[in-house]
Design goal:
494 residues; mainly alpha; two-stranded antiparallel ribbon; 24 helices; 6 strands; 3% strand; flat
Length: 494
């Protein structure tokens, strides 16, 4: 169910704090309904909170619990009320009881009475899941957001942090109070600190004493401690270096980036400035060393060809086929940021299929205009000299001229072989049409010779006219050239 909150989480929580203080980003995520719901933090209650809550009037207590626990919505629905929906439910229940009392089904009546007796028996009255200390958020806050798995925290620290965040919950999570006119509907689904549910005792987190009676400040102190911890500086520096420099950043780069983080008190902008100004960032061995994710590949392909897109489901589906369904990664770590996750035979095939579909106009809502290239007009074959110029023209636009001689030679060889086969072979059919599986053969040598060799081995059909993905109709040679360049190792790199 958290999928409904993810877009807002990205837009309203992450993006506004991307270049600010890391502590502010931590606070925004800690108070985000998406995070509170995803890790069940909004149901975290101090074990001693029930004692105070039990002294409330039953109706007030029941409604109060409904505001902070959606699992209690059923109990709220069964309570007193005069809304049409509740009256209808009550009438249905009365009708069912009358039907049972008339003896139409004695066995059903007996079973219902037994179930009713069990429901009303004192030991069975709590129908909702028992709430209490929940360590999910505390553990992931330290393991994934700040210190890292080797950051020096203990299980006791996890428990103490969990205590600090008791009472951090969601106000009226299902909007029941707003619908009933009891609470402000505009506050429904927003962060809410409930002091009644908070553990106000003394805590010790990573050696720092957090005095009793702090209320919401307990959680704020934890975020301050974690954001300033040396392990957090190293953990964040490593992630940023891996994202922007290489899959395996050197310890010297990580150390300097961490020092910039510490010196600036967690200023993300200053940390990135130090990273981008480092010798490693501009080193030849790290130039375009990172592989594009499917999302980056799709966006950069449309941009490089001057295309237009409505960003609709058809484009989403292609990104998902290449391995990155948007907002659908289940693990809390997010999509991996290393090439080994993205470069494999199946993924390369889908990337080439995407390129063919894009240049062929077969993605609904997305169009590219190849006619703007001087030598790309027409749909027939291109002469040898013009073919070489067209390759250079596309490479200049798509790759900013950054195509290796080896890649260009392989691309021209692929085109010439396809043209020769076309001139001596019958029209392609579903059994002899070469599809995207053969296309990557021209790209060997720059990204991963082994990977592309495996991709080539997957193409069982003979050489011939490359067709658009899902179609037997041959595509223009200019479009074929554009697709092959989009599938080149140079374009696969950031």
């Amino acid at each position: 169910a958290d999928r409904w909150l993810l877009v807002s989480y990205d837009r309203d929580t992450i993006r506004p704090h991307t270049l600010g203080k890391f502590k502010d980003l931590l606070l925004a995520t800690a108070q985000s309904p998406a995070m509170l719901f995803y890790l069940d933090n909004f149901q975290r209650v101090s074990p001693t909170a029930a004692q105070g809550a039990s002294r409330m009037r039953p109706r007030v207590k029941r409604f109060f619990e409904t505001l902070t626990n959606p699992q209690m919505s059923g109990a709220a629905d069964a309570g007193q009320g005069t809304t049409p929906q509740r009256r209808a439910r009550m009438n249905r229940r009365r009708a069912l009881r009358r039907e049972q009392s008339n003896g139409q089904n004695a066995q059903m009546t007996a079973a219902a009475e037994q179930e009713q007796a069990q429901m009303t028996a004192p030991p069975q009255q709590p129908r909702r899941q028992r709430r209490g200390i929940n360590e999910n958020y505390a553990r992931e806050l330290m393991e994934l957001h700040t210190l890292g798995v080797e950051g020096g925290y203990t299980q006791k620290d996890v428990q103490e942090v969990a205590r600090c965040f008791t009472g951090w919950t969601i106000f009226d999570p299902r909007g029941l109070g707003g619908m009933a006119g009891v609470t402000n509907p505009e506050r429904a689904g927003t962060f809410f600190f409930n002091a009644r549910l908070h553990d106000d005792g003394e805590k010790v987190v990573l050696g720092h004493k957090i005095p009793a009676g702090g209320g919401i400040n307990d959680g704020l102190m934890v975020l301050d401690i974690l954001s300033k911890h040396p392990s957090t500086a190293k953990f964040i520096a490593t992630k940023l270096a891996r994202r922007f420099v290489s899959d395996n950043p050197g310890p010297a780069l990580v150390a300097r980036t961490a020092a910039a983080y510490t010196k600036s008190e967690g200023d993300i902008r200053e940390t990135l400035r130090a990273l981008f100004a480092s010798p490693e960032f501009n080193a030849p061995e790290n130039y375009r060393a990172k592989i594009k994710t499917p999302f980056e590949l799709a966006v950069s392909a449309v941009r490089s060809l001057g295309g237009e897109t409505n960003g609709g489901p058809a484009l989403h589906q292609w990104i998902a086929r290449m391995g990155e369904p948007l907002y659908m990664y289940q693990a809390p770590t997010g999509y991996p940021d290393t090439a080994e996750h993205w470069v494999n035979t199946g993924a390369l095939l889908e990337r080439m299929n995407f390129a063919l579909a894009l240049v062929s106009g077969r993605i609904n809502g997305t169009r590219v205009n190849l006619s703007r290239f001087a030598h790309a007009s027409g749909s027939g074959a291109v002469a040898g000299a013009d073919k070489s110029r067209l390759v250079d023209e596309f490479a200049a636009s798509i790759l900013q001229g950054d195509m290796s001689p080896k890649t260009k030679a392989a691309l021209l060889r692929q085109l010439n072989e396809a043209a020769a086969t076309t001139n001596t072979s019958p029209a392609p059919s579903p059994t002899n049409t070469t599809t995207a599986a053969d296309a990557p053969t021209m790209t060997t040598g720059a990204l991963s010779n082994e990977e592309f060799a495996r991709v080539r081995g997957r193409g069982g059909a003979r050489r011939g006219e490359m067709s658009a993905a899902g179609s037997n109709a041959p595509i223009p040679e200019a479009a074929r050239i554009a697709a092959l360049i989009l599938g080149s190792p140079e374009f696969q790199r950031q």
